[in-house]
Amino acid sequence: MSASQKPKQLPIYAFLSDAAVERYARMTREGHFNLASFEVFWQQRHKYLEDAGYLLRPRYIPNWKPSWIGTNLDPTYCEDSIMLQEHQVMDATRSETNEVVAIKTFTKDTEELQIAQFFSALKDPMNHCVPIHQILPDPFDHEKALMVMPYLRPCKNPDWSTLGDVVDFVTQTLEGLTFMHRHRVAHCDIATPNIMMDARPLYPHGHHPVRLNFAPDGMHRVTPLPRAGRSIRYFYIDFGLALQFQPGATPTALGRVGRDREVPELSDTIPYDPFKVDIYALGHLYSQEFEQKYDSMEFLIPLIELMTRREPTQRADAEQLLLKWEEIRRDLNKSTFRWRLAPKGEPAIERVLNDTVSVAWHGINHLKSLVS
Asked: Do 77 and 24 contact (CB within 8 A), yes or no?
């Protein structure tokens, strides 16, 4: 905290009544806030990670004692009560830079490490694969390792709000797909949860890595800035199912794998082209997240149609799709990029009100950017 920043006053909702104090004290004694078994995994590695330059949150310090014991604070709003949600991924702070990172535990004898490191070493503006900062051997399990990556936020949290947000997302994800396919890698699990973003421009003062809509203290709510006018970068993550093929090799795969189970050719017995699966899955994502949800998405329909044809051989490849998208994007009127995304079926009077609020909100944030 800088000298100009003052500690925030605790909000009234962070305090308990006398009766509630006793109730939460009993729950604490009974173990309701104890570390889960998957959290103990990370607590056991606290000292090892600290020595490597990564600090875990206070909850994972060995012999941790809840900070609210003996106070009238509501444990819900005490940062060290916040449990980990993703069992395999832990957030940490790099002590040298104060940067928040994500650390993933994974089994070493898979292609995930090889592919992740391969992409991380390639410097290209079209590379939208999550970078790898460091690979650490697991101190207790020689078959596992710890992968240190940038901390990223789900790509739709906060949700997209303008037409320009959609255009930017489609551009970056198509670039990233083309880049992977140029290097003969099929992701095999393209879905909204596996595309994340560096949201630091939206949260200049940070946010809690688990309780996403709260400040790092886990107590005060935070409001994101709009994406418009800010450089948000999207990344493909999780290469656990990815396949890499040698030049000239026929790309084939088997198995009903991946989050998108609507890909028509998935089969346990009939080989299919995993690159075409990626194409379908990304087109299906565009359809579900944008075309089916919002008005004024007609410009996406030709692209989606090329990506989601039932016959895999009839789908365009990534290079063709990127060219098609650049053609579509050139024809879009840039003055519409700040238009609010209007949900399908939104009542007319509600739409007028929401459009007015959106214009005012973006105007206020534009003024803030000019004086900050």
From this structure: no
User: Which of 337, 335, 339, 333 has its CA nearest to residue 358?
Assistant: 339
pTM (two decimals) = 0.90
Sort 364 into a burial class: Cβ within 10 Å, 0-12 / 13-18 / 19+.
exposed
CA 359 → CA 157, 223, 340, 363, distances in Å?
21, 17, 8, 6
d(CA 212, CA 208): 5
Task: Name the residue among 182, 164, 179 with its Cα closest to residue 236.
Answer: 179
Residue 187 CA to residue 178 CA, distance in Å, equals 11
Encoded tokens for 118 = 């391969």
Q: What is the mean pLDDT of residues 282-301?
A: 98
What separation in angstroms does the CA of 142 have from each of 107, 134, 139?
9, 17, 7
3-state secondary structure of 185: strand
Torsion sign across C-alpha atoms 99, 105, 109, 110: negative
Alpha carbon distance 195, 170 (integer Å): 11
User: What pLDDT is attached to residue 2?
Assistant: 41
Residue 228 phi/psi, 5-degree rounding, is: -55, 130
